[in-house]
Amino acid sequence: MSASPENVGEVVYLRGVVKAQQPDKQKRSLELGRPVFVHDQIFTYSDSNVEIKFKDETLFSQGEDANSAFDDFIFSQAQDLPNLMFKLNKDVFRMVTGKIVKQNLDGFKLSTPLATIGIRGTQPFAEITSRQEVIGVLDIAANHTMEVTSVGGKVVMDKPNLVSTVSPSGQVTPPALLPAAMRQKVLNAVPMTSLGELGAIGLNLKQRLSKIRAFNRQLAHIKQALPGISQPPNIGLLHQISVFSNARGHEETEAQSGRSSREGGRDGGSSQHTSGPGSSGGESPGGEV
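RESULT FIELD:
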């Protein structure tokens, strides 16, 4: 009888249909709070995404129509050379590194069809398509780097909000400033509820409630780490209010925008405007949509 695979983390947020598959090719459905195991391949489907928290506190978020695999995971508080190895195969992914990087700077590895990504304390992301791979960093710790290596060369990123592309031939472009629109696209596609992000807010009640359940589960984990606090603030309720008021605010903004356009048309005025407070030209605070 073969040994059971090692439990390496759990699902902390899930939307839509997400499945995991071990090397025996048997798929199982994932749900909030379910474990993930070493050698799992994770599949997300249309209008779905998942966030996984590993035992070393690494966060991993995968967007819709994507698949990835956890090739290796070795971690314990006493482990001298822990490691975590991801294989990213298709679509959008994002990570926040945990304790493994602190214990072993070379212990966190990502591979894509075209490149290898070496990470030393950072928030990397990748968007993988048949045309190219877009690999970047949203945030990075001081004196840390991220290396992107392919058959066509290697680039090093040592500042936040940088991005490179890898062509099918393996050529890697020099790091460039990450456009604000691309950053927002990543935050919407692969939000980190563990960091308090809401991601894109739709009008689907089931999806909003899923966000609330995930947030409350994170709150429960935090409570366990804070003994002596018997009645902390009801952050789950505050989060629920935030989710629904944010969505309501977008509905009102859209309605107001429609009224303004109609009134502008009647007055013969121009529909162009400059960016400023309240305009749609800037990024909203906290990366929320």
